[in-house]
């Protein structure tokens, strides 16, 4: 983000903002015009709590990446951190290409297959994460191009998933035990499969 030269006047969208941690950081660090959107009401509620006193203010919206209620050419920069893979990828990319200005750019970090997963692994991924497809880097590039994105760069990062520690979790009071089991399965899946499933950071433009 430090390399992006984000200006105060720029309109930035954090797509699938979750609890709003990145949106808060970007607005505070760059004083830009931030909009954050997520489909899940609990994420939006938690983001609202985090962002309520944010300066500069952030526009927070509950909405669907596949059907964005923004006018064409609304944003200078779109960020999506681990979001598009959970949606109908082509629909979301088409929507993003519509709402980003011609002069704009997009940076996404998304789950990427390091090699073609076996059918059994694919079934496990689909049932664990509810996603329709796990794309390789080449497949991501093809879908980005189809949606109209150009100058697609892969920003260099470690290719394996890295376990991270979160320090400011606002945990809900009553979480059903099935969600802890699911989290456990996710942790195990990441540890066991980081040769097959990694991620990529793509930066792309529209012109
Ligand atoms: C893995 S979380 C990432 C959250 C946040 N970007 C971060 O890095 O902490 C994925 C987020 O995408 C949101 N999401 C999934 N499908 C979506 C959709 N169709 N439209 C908008 N948000 C969506 C989820 O509700 C969730 O908050």
**General shape:** globular
Number of strands: 7
Provide the helix percentage.
25-40%
Identify the CATH architecture. 3-Layer(aba) Sandwich
Please give the domain count: 1
Low-confidence stretches: none
Please give the order of strands in the largest beta sheet: 3-2-1-4-5-7-6
Q: Give the cofactors and ligands.
A: S-adenosylmethionine
3D architecture notes:
The chain has 207 residues and is α/β, with parallel strands linked by helices. The protein has one domain: Vaccinia Virus protein VP39 (Rossmann fold). Helix content is 34%, strand content 25%. It has 6 helices and 7 strands, in the order βαβαββαβααβαβ. It has helices at 21-30, 41-51, 89-99, 119-129, 137-146, 177-193; strands at 11-15, 33-38, 59-62, 75-81, 100-113, 150-155, 197-205. Strands 3-2-1-4-5-7-6 form a 7-stranded mixed β-sheet. Helix 1 (21-30) links the parallel strand 1 and strand 2. The protein is globular. The model has no long low-confidence stretch (mean pLDDT 93). Bound molecules: S-adenosylmethionine. Residues 16-18, 21, 38-40, 43, 64-66, 81-83, 86-87 line the site of S-adenosylmethionine (SAM).
Descriptive labels:
207 residues, alpha/beta, globular, binds S-adenosylmethionine
Layout: helices, strands, pairs:
Blueprint: E1 11-15, H1 21-30, E2 33-38, H2 41-51, E3 59-62, E4 75-81, H3 89-99, E5 100-113, H4 119-129, H5 137-146, E6 150-155, H6 177-193, E7 197-205
Parallel strand pairs: 1-2, 1-4, 2-3, 4-5
Antiparallel strand pairs: 5-7, 6-7
Bound molecules: S-adenosylmethionine (SAM).
């Amino acid at each position: 983000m430090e390399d992006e030269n984000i200006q105060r006047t720029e309109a930035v969208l954090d797509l699938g903002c979750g609890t709003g941690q990145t949106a808060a950081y970007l607005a505070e660090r760059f004083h830009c015009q931030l909009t954050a959107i997520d489909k899940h009401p609990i994420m939006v509620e938690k983001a609202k709590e985090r962002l309520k006193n944010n300066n500069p203010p952030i526009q927070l919206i509950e909405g669907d990446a596949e059907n964005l209620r923004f006018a064409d050419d609304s944003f200078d920069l779109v960020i999506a951190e681990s979001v598009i893979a959970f949606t109908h990828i082509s629909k979301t990319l088409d929507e993003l290409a519509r709402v980003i200005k011609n002069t704009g750019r997009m940076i996404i970090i998304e789950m990427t297959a390091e090699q073609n997963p076996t059918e059994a692994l694919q079934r496990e991924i689909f049932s664990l994460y509810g996603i329709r497809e796990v794309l390789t880097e080449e497949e991501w590039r093809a879908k980005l191009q189809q949606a109209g994105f150009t100058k697609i760069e892969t920003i260099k990062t470690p290719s394996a998933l890295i376990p991270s520690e979160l320090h400011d979790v606002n945990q809900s009071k009553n979480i059903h035990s099935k969600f802890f089991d699911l989290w456990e399965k996710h942790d195990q899946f990441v540890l066991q499969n980081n040769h097959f499933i990694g991620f990529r950071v793509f930066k792309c433009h529209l012109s």
